[in-house]
Specification:
The chain contains four helices and five strands, in the order βααββαβαβ. The chain is an alpha/beta fold and 162 residues long. It has a single domain, classed as Rossmann fold (3-Layer(aba) Sandwich). It is globular, with a radius of gyration of 17 Å.
Length: 162
């Protein structure tokens, strides 16, 4: 954005920071909200028991009718076996979709652009075992580099136009 300030002159970057900064934009003013690798954090008990619901509601409230929410996160393949606290960094698509719908969003599209079939989702230090973190250091480094980054979901939600 810094390289093409004229094109992005109306973009305002804000932060959602539980529990300190929840007003990411005045109600009904945002065209789009993007969140990358955050939903799994919101279900962690350390954020509070309702952080995920609150996160999606804050975003819903900030968006204009017809506004778009984009979510990218580490995908757990089976909602029946996922860690409820997402301690491994993964969360199921089904769970994210349910949380978004409970806030009032409609699922508009999904993409496999970030799918990684090499990721078996079973790593000693969760998603952080894989690049870019490589939490195991040099231990099995080449194996994790060969897998690449985590398998991720890419979801598009829309706030209904009343």
């Amino acid at each position: 954005m810094g390289e093409n300030a004229k094109l992005y002159r109306d973009v305002e970057i804000t932060t959602l920071d539980f529990p300190y900064a929840l007003a990411i934009a005045p109600a009904g003013t945002a065209d789009m909200v993007l969140t990358f690798r955050n939903a799994h954090n919101w279900v962690d008990p350390g954020y509070g028991t309702h952080a995920a619901a609150l996160g999606f509601q804050v975003i819903f409230d900030a968006l204009k009718p017809g506004g778009v929410l984009g979510v990218v996160d580490h995908r757990w393949p089976d909602p029946e076996t996922e860690d409820p606290a997402a301690g491994n960094g993964y969360i199921s698509e089904e769970r994210v979709i349910k949380l978004a719908k409970e806030a009032g969003f409609e699922l508009a599209a999904r993409s496999d652009m970030h799918r990684n079939m090499k990721d078996d989702h079973e790593h000693p230090r969760g998603v952080w075992t894989l690049p870019p973190s490589l939490a195991m250091g040099d231990q099995d480094r080449e194996q994790y580099i060969a897998i690449g980054e985590s398998d991720r979901m890419t979801l598009k939600f829309v706030k209904p136009a009343k």
